[in-house]
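Changelog-adjacent note: as of this version, every example in the card shows the full chain rather than a window. The one below runs 85 residues end to end.
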Amino acid sequence: MSKRAAPSKQLLHLVFGGEIGRLDSIEFKNLDKLDIVGIYPSYASAYNAWKARAQQTVDNAHMRYFIVHLHRLLDPGSGGQQATR
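Full-length structure tokens:
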């Protein structure tokens, strides 16, 4: 009988960005034009998507991209880990 590895926990991350009005704040110029890159099952995959999109917009100092830890918002009491129920 072969042993299967336990599936890794799904820790969702959102990658999004847009053009900010001022370099010293995080207020977007136009919320209707936010770029929702995607939702990813791990920080590593979200980081790769964030890095790729940020590099595409490197010539615009007002473009900012962010990684949001959705799993922390969905279950704030878990300490960053997805709780089993």
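Structural remarks: The first helix runs from residue 43 to 56.
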